[in-house]
Write a structure and sequence with these properties.
By secondary structure, the protein is an all-alpha fold. It has one domain. Helix content is 64%, strand content 0%.
């Protein structure tokens, strides 16, 4: 994770408060209860309204919630990256390599054949014309 000192402005705190407050208020406080035919959920509505009001009136007070939110996002991003890359490796690359190994493909030329004394491959001579027009 980064150990950089980042300077944030009022605009960052304001947009954080408006976005998170709007999501809490509109989606979790109003839309989901309406969709499920339940009462308005005050546990999400009140913090949403408070965040929106603080963002509009005094955005600097949102500095520490913003920093906490960003740190949580950074940690989750670190974890999710490893999970996604591991899934891609074990679902895509590992089976592909296993199949290639089972059918005897050696793309990198790592196997030493019985009549070879070294892994070294002698390069072939390339004509000058080939370098003038490579394509």
């Amino acid at each position: 994770m980064k150990n950089e000192i980042q300077i944030h402005s009022k605009k960052d705190y304001r947009s954080f408060g408006l976005i998170v407050g709007s999501v809490l208020l509109l989606i979790f406080g109003l839309a989901l209860p309406y969709w499920k035919s339940q009462q308005i959920n005050l546990y999400f509505t009140i913090p949403g309204v408070v965040l929106i009001l603080l963002a509009l009136i005094f955005p600097l007070i949102l500095k520490y919630p913003y920093l906490l939110w960003m740190k949580i996002g950074e940690i989750l991003g670190f974890i999710n990256t490893r999970i996604i890359l591991s899934i891609i490796f074990f679902v895509l690359f590992a089976p592909f390599g296993l199949v290639r190994r089972l059918i005897g493909r050696d793309s990198l030329g790592l196997q030493l054949h019985a009549n070879d004394e070294t892994y070294r491959k002698i390069s072939t001579h390339v004509e000058i014309k080939h370098m003038e027009r490579p394509f």
